[in-house]
User: Fold this.
Amino acid sequence: MSLEVQPVWTSEPGSMANETALTRWPRIVLDIVKDVTETCDQLSAQDEKKEAQRICRELESLHEEITTDGKLREITLRQKVDNASLLPEDERLSDVEDWNAQLRQIQGCSWLAAPWLFTECYLYKRVQAIFVISDTQIWPSYDYFKRQKDSTFAKSSAAVEELAARFINMVKEKDAFTDQTHADAQRLLFTEMVEIALWGNATDLSMLGPLSVEDLQSLQGRDSIAKSRRNIVDDDLDDVWRFLSRHPRANIDIVLDNAGFEFFTDMLLATYLLEMKIASSIRIHVKDFPWFVSDVIPSDIPSLFSHLKSTEIFPHHRQEIDQLVTRMQNQLSSGAIHVQQHPFWTTGHTYHDMPSHAKDLFEDLKSRDLIITKGDLNYRKLTRDGLWPHTTRFEDAIGPMGRGSGINVMALRTNKADVVVGIETEAKVAELHKEAPNGAWTRNGRYAVISFNEGRLPN
Assistant:
């Protein structure tokens, strides 16, 4: 079932979209300038320093566009260098015409008066285009968010150490959970692992900015996760457990969100699903280039293990952490966990557009038993970032990926945007508005959803 819905616009007063456009986007661009400047100071090659200066100038120009509410302009494929030759088109900009076609559809829109989801994606594409046209060695593939991701993960030591120890102890006891009499224990353990991955999404750098050690500990600890259970406003986890019980050794995909601590919890979930034989294979989907500040890109995978092996960052529970790292790396090297990339994940399209704009990906996802989408952006794309009534059924809001689509999807998301669906009754919505006024429950990251749709009808 596909329904029409009005998307959230950046011009909506008091909306998360408006706040993001006014404050977060300018800050993000200036943070990139700061990062490039810091890297430039460490370089010796003059061509790379010169390119850094060009990049900073263009980023500052982009910042001015945003803060002065400039028109959204088309992305150019080529750029002159030193008033000389034109750079050849880069394959990483091969989708620019698609972006520009979408821009023409919303012609006349400006940064502060445009569809939020598309414009936010457009921001990160504009930034990538500034870097990728460089003909130097460092800048085309440079991760301008790496410092932020690394710094935040390093502050997560207490939660990482706690969860690693918990996981290894759980694996040692797993034989006790194989008998049917321990079905309840298996279900409770599954619930715990999924909720750990769910609340790992609370640390989203594109939304929260710099976080202190104390901030992270309040978000990430196991006790904190347990206390947050009542804040899951749409909870289909029992349905997911029943589904997986009917589909043992499932083939599961995880469409990743944030690097660092959240990625650690996602790898923890993947390893658990394989260890417990709930899954026979896991595919993790990463982004092609730096996206929404902290999204996982390919280089974040070895970076995760490099950090976990650091006795300086994670000095405690070393035996358990080392055992866990070995298990995770073995799962990757054996192919039990497989890394996937697809350009669709870094487009301005919602997942309602997937059947027409990425038919290969849509058909591929149909072949899997369960798709787990992580985080706020994936949820917004699933629901077309629409201003749905909060009581709209999840299966209706996700349109072509809903019931009868052939795709089984579970969304794990802490609420950090205006769109939330799947609330059972208007009375519950009213209760949430009273508990967290002015829509805070939809955007402060302290409430969450575990939404499930079985899109592949049983035989």
About this structure: The chain has two domains: 16-132, 146-454. The first strand starts at residue 232 and ends at 235. The beta strands are 232-235, 250-255, 279-286, 337-341, 370-374, 408-414, 448-454.
